[in-house]
Hints:
There is one protein chain. This protein is mainly alpha-helical and 80 residues long. The chain has two domains: 6-36, no CATH class; 38-80. It is built from two helices and two strands, in the order H-E-E-H. Strands 1-2 form a two-stranded antiparallel ribbon. A hairpin with a 7-residue loop joins strand 1 (21-25) and strand 2. The longest helix is centred in the last third of the chain and has 41 residues, at 39-79. The protein is rod-shaped and about 90 Å long. The N and C termini lie far apart (93 Å). The mean pLDDT is 79.
Amino acid sequence: MIFENKEALQGQIEQLDLFHVAEIKIPKENAIEIKFFDRFKAFEQLTELMQLQTDAQEVNEFYKALELGAKSLNKDEVDE
């Protein structure tokens, strides 16, 4: 019924704002499945990834500082 004229439907779809739509399926006659993006969840995951990267960078900087301190102590012991 609603999908009898697929060319007209195609023209209507092209005019719609589908910014939040991830996927559209027509699994069987007279049915439609629409999957929406969950932008808030995507933002949360990006925030978590950024935090993990920041944490890893801070740990790396800490180990570098520790290594430089150890080298400095070792150098001081050699000089004595």
